UniProtKB/TrEMBL annotation:
Domain of life (superkingdom): Bacteria
Leader sequence residues: none
Residue ranges annotated for the DUF5753 domain, each copy included: 91-265
Name of the protein in question: Helix-turn-helix protein
Gene3D superfamilies: lambda repressor-like DNA-binding domains (1.10.260.40)
Organism this protein belongs to: Lentzea atacamensis
InterPro entries from the UniProt entry: Cro/C1-type_HTH, DUF5753, Lambda_DNA-bd_dom_sf
Membrane-spanning intervals of the chain: none
Length: 271
């Protein structure tokens, strides 16, 4: 994940020169594949070579400092970010990678998943956060709601949601009912699967907390976790396997899509 962020940063600096990757490689005496691997976050270059490339492209001191720090950190298994605004799901990195994922699988035990929240629901959730100042709530809530734009047929979505999350009346009865109705509306889209973990399932594999698993066309799968004011991205194979196993176990106890719609209907009807 850090390697990807590093590659994106270097790509922007290279584009700013107006030169092609091939031409830059020729001028540096490199194989073009070396730059391609670097931009893809695959490594294969030394710190000295990174500094040489950044100097050639006339990166600023601040840019070089930031990118070298990312390069040195790219061998770590996880990446812990400390967002200045204290809003984990508004971190630029998460939003950018959420947009570029080909498949997103989310497990949400306590609330409707963020990308499925209607604006009124998202506003109440934002206002309830202990780390967001009251003056910032409208802006942050609007940013959260804007994430719904990724709900299109260019990618696949699977949402596992606990029944308790559906029964939690967020924002009063009217908002809560509209939120459930919204889930029913989007659940019929061919690229969205909503599966409910029924309360009758009892203890299950997902009790440790919610998470996202994002799959990409050209990059390794990433697991995303968040707390009140921290975000953690993990892409090492062992960790990803743990969360993929958790998803398989959730799938084994979850209601199928039709049954899940029936659960939502029953809640709306007061059952």
């Amino acid at each position: 994940m850090v390697g990807r962020e590093f590659g994106n940063g270097v790509r922007k600096i290279i584009e700013r020169t107006g030169l092609t990757q091939r031409r830059i490689a020729e001028l540096l005496g490199w194989q073009e594949a070396k730059i391609s691997d670097l931009l893809a976050g695959k490594g294969g270059v030394s710190e000295m070579e990174v500094r040489e490339l950044l100097a050639f492209c006339q990166a600023t001191v601040e840019e070089r400092s930031h990118l070298i720090a990312l390069f040195l950190e790219s061998g770590e298994k996880g990446w812990l970010q400390f967002p200045e605004d204290g809003v984990p799901d508004q971190v630029r990195t998460f939003i950018e990678h959420e947009k570029s994922a080909k498949k997103i699988i989310a497990w949400s035990p306590t609330l409707v998943p963020g990308v499925l929240q209607i604006p009124e629901y998202a506003y109440v959730v934002t206002a309830a956060s202990p780390v967001i100042e009251a003056a910032d709530v409208p802006t942050v809530a609007a940013a959260r709601s804007a994430r719904a734009k990724i709900l299109d047929g260019s990618r696949q979505f699977v949402f596992y949601v606990h029944e308790f999350a559906l029964r939690l009346q967020v924002g009063g009865v009217e908002v809560w009912r509209e939120q459930l109705a919204h889930l029913l509306r989007v659940s019929v889209r061919s690229y969205i699967s909503i599966r409910i973990i029924p309360a009758s399932a009892g203890i299950h594999a997902g009790t440790s907390g919610g998470f996202y698993v994002m799959e990409f066309a050209k990059f390794p799968t990433v697991v995303y976790l968040e707390t009140l004011n921290r975000c953690l991205f993990l892409d090492d194979a062992d960790t990803v396997e743990v969360y993929e196993t958790t998803l398989k176990k959730l799938a084994a106890v979850a209601s199928d899509e039709e049954q899940s719609r029936a659960v939502i209907d029953n809640i709306l009807e007061g059952n």
